Amino acid sequence: MIDTLILNTAELVLKGGVRRFFEEQLLRNVQSQLLPDTPVQLEWRQAGLYLSWPEPPDIEAVRANAQRLARVFGVAYVGLAASCPLELEKISALAVDLLAGEPAGSFKVDCRRQDKRLPFKSPAVAREVGAAVLMAQPERSVKLNNPDLTLRIILETGQAFLMVNPLPGPAGLPVNTAGRLTALLSGGIDSPVAAWRMASRGCLLELVHFHSYPMVTQASLDKVKRLAARLATWQVADRLVLMPLLDIQKQIVSAAPEADRVLLYRRAMLQLAERVAAGSNSLGLVTGDSVGQVASQTLENLLAVTSAVSLPVYRPLCGNDKESVVQLAKRIDTYDLSIEPHDDCCSLFTPAHPTTRAKPATLQAAEAACDLGPLLETAWEQCELIPLTADWD
Ligand code: ATP
Ligand code: MG
């Protein structure tokens, strides 16, 4: 029965004159997200992008593609749809058939009319179809709030599309419509979420990870690569840059006040990330900082660290509490990887009493005493570029 995927693109509808630009990028993102050799026809209609199979498709292939497309930014929901002629009896019969294959439980019918000239009013269709379902499957009950099953019906000229429980997509704007950003990716919970949030506004990211190999294990580096590949299932980023920080850290440890170490690591990270950004026309940096979460994230420290660079530093989580970040990390499927144990370069040589209210001038003086220039150069020369492919496992 099911032969169409409907990708609803809610926010794009608002985009007026530049809508075509967003739609074209969304189309490219959708095409690159499909499984190889998926023989679909793509067509824009009022409700969004329709992907239809010319031959009756293998339902498992449709489901697998739907799961992938539910990770394309710009998509509000993905519906696995069946269609029928625009006749009330046929719509009701199809609804009964579709729901017959679903587990028991409450349901509601949600009907949208795309063509306002149609003789049917949406609420009347919903009522009629709901009644037909109840008649055929009396064990079901109607529940308008939070039902187990939502049957969505889209009425178009000549045709109706029906789908059960559309998959929620991330909505937002298609990746690569806003420009490039360079995100600092640690192995923790916050920075993958921060990168994802910026991608949801149409930015295409590159990810930079700083490591202290061989003082940190190869396993920690592999973890970051897996995290990046997981983010790539959302098309968040196209490459990962691995950058050695150990020699810079050792120099900071030997030449700077102990309390300032972490802040000086951070300034070095931002400076190196800014160099990566300059090489790829990136328009800003992204970090997972949240105000007050740890000592390095007081407003004073964030200011003193940020003054190391001139690109804007986007911190989309700065007003979030940890719990809300954890919730989002779970939703975007990075949490399980983030909580795997790893050693991070920032935990090397950490002071017992870090500076909590740094002054930019003092920190800059401490940095100058370290004479990091040549070491930054070497780190830059030693960076490793890894193109990303999505890891769906
Ligand atoms: P996260 O969970 O993202 O590690 P956090 O709350 O642990 O964040 P910090 O460890 O203080 O915070 O790091 C703040 C931000 O600095 C991170 O979100 C990340 O953007 C950046 N950062 C920290 N360590 C690294 C690293 N090794 N490589 C790249 N970026 C890093
Ligand atoms: Mg961290």
Description:
This protein has 393 residues and is α/β, with parallel strands linked by helices. It is 38% helix and 21% strand. The chain is built from 13 helices and 15 strands. It has helices at 19-33, 59-69, 88-100, 122-136, 190-199, 218-231, 246-255, 261-278, 299-306, 322-331, 335-338, 360-370, 373-381, and strands at residues 4-8, 41-45, 48-52, 77-85, 106-113, 141-142, 149-156, 159-164, 167-168, 179-184, 203-211, 237-244, 285-286, 313-314, 384-387. Strands 1, 2, 3, 4, 5, 6, 7, 8 and 9 form a 9-stranded mixed sheet that branches. Strands 14-13-10-11-12-15 form a 6-stranded mixed sheet, sandwiched between helices. Helix 3 (88-100) packs across helix 4 (122-136), helix 7 (246-255) runs antiparallel to helix 8 and helix 8 (261-278) packs across helix 9 (299-306). The longest helix is centred in the last third of the chain and has 18 residues, at 261-278. The protein is elongated and about 80 Å long. The model has no long low-confidence stretch (mean pLDDT 95). The structure holds adenosine-5'-triphosphate and magnesium ion. Adenosine-5'-triphosphate binds next to helix 5 and strand 11.
How are the SSEs placed, and which strands pair?
Blueprint: E1 4-8, H1 19-33, E2 41-45, E3 48-52, H2 59-69, E4 77-85, H3 88-100, E5 106-113, H4 122-136, E6 141-142, E7 149-156, E8 159-164, E9 167-168, E10 179-184, H5 190-199, E11 203-211, H6 218-231, E12 237-244, H7 246-255, H8 261-278, E13 285-286, H9 299-306, E14 313-314, H10 322-331, H11 335-338, H12 360-370, H13 373-381, E15 384-387
Parallel strand pairs: 5-6, 5-7, 10-11, 10-13, 11-12, 13-14
Antiparallel strand pairs: 1-3, 1-4, 2-3, 4-8, 4-9, 7-8, 12-15
Helix pairs in contact: 3-4, 7-8, 7-12, 8-9, 9-12
